[in-house]
Amino acid sequence: MAVPNIFATATAAIPLSQLDTNFATAITLGSTALYLGNTTTTVAGLTLTTPVLTNPTVTNYVETLQAVGTVGASSTLALTNGTVLTATLTASTPCTFTMPTATAGKSFILILTQAATGMTTATFTSVKYPGGTAPTITATASAVDILTFVANGTSWFGTYAQAFA
Predict the structure, then answer these.
(1) 33 - beta bridge partners?
(2) CA–CA separation, 71 vs 163, rounded Å?
(3) Host H or E run for residue 113
(4) Segment 4-20 mean pLDDT
(5) How far is it, in rounded angstroms, from Cα 25 to Cα 58?
(6) 106 to each of 56, 122, 150, 154, how far by Cα in Å?
(7) Residue 13: what pLDDT?
(8) Phi and psi of 74, rounded to 5°?
(9) What residues pair up with 42 in beta bridges, in sequence order?
(10) Alpha helices (H) along the chain
């Protein structure tokens, strides 16, 4: 039996009995071809909203970089546009970063660049650090500190690597 493989407005399940034996027939959802394979499912150009992946293998991926820009006396970090953030401190203006909601399993990286003249400090609200001590941001002009944060649903936990030149 031929596979009815165009489903622009499908309202019913596709009967497995109508697929060929190796599942090589493409199913079209709107303008997207979907190939159901024995071990691989290919979806090209399809945006998935809040999918749940169980035990995936991800190869050669890129995280979205979010440029926060130059920050003043305070900055609220948001992860809606990416989980690798870059920010530059303003000369002679200590900055307090407000953390996003500590959603369990959420993590992000902040690449923090010191002001071109150096000597600016930064603090982060509600973060637990190793040994209970927050890092002192590298004061050298244009130095880069990389801070990594992960949440357990209640708290943010932070680690850091510092003084990249």
Answers:
(1) 28
(2) 19
(3) strand 107-113
(4) 56
(5) 25
(6) 17, 22, 6, 11
(7) 60
(8) -150, 150
(9) 35
(10) none
103 by DSSP, 3-state: which? coil
Tokens found for residue 117: 């003249």
Over residues 79-129, the pLDDT tens digits come to 999 999 999 999 989 999 999 999 999 999 999 999 999 999 999 999 999
* Structure tokens belonging to residue 69: 């820009």
* pTM recorded for the entire structure: 0.71
Task: Please indicate whether residue 34 or residue 88 has the higher confidence score (pLDDT).
Answer: 88
> What is the distance between the alpha carbons of residues 149 and 133, in angstroms, rounded to a whole number?
15
- The tokens for 87 are 């920010």
Q: 152: which 2 tokens?
A: 């357990």
Single out the residue of 83, 65, 86, 62 nearest to residue 150, CA to CA.
83
User: Which of 58, 89, 51 minimizes the C-alpha distance to 73?
Assistant: 89
Q: Would you say the C-alpha torsion 98, 101, 104, 105 has a positive or negative sign?
A: negative
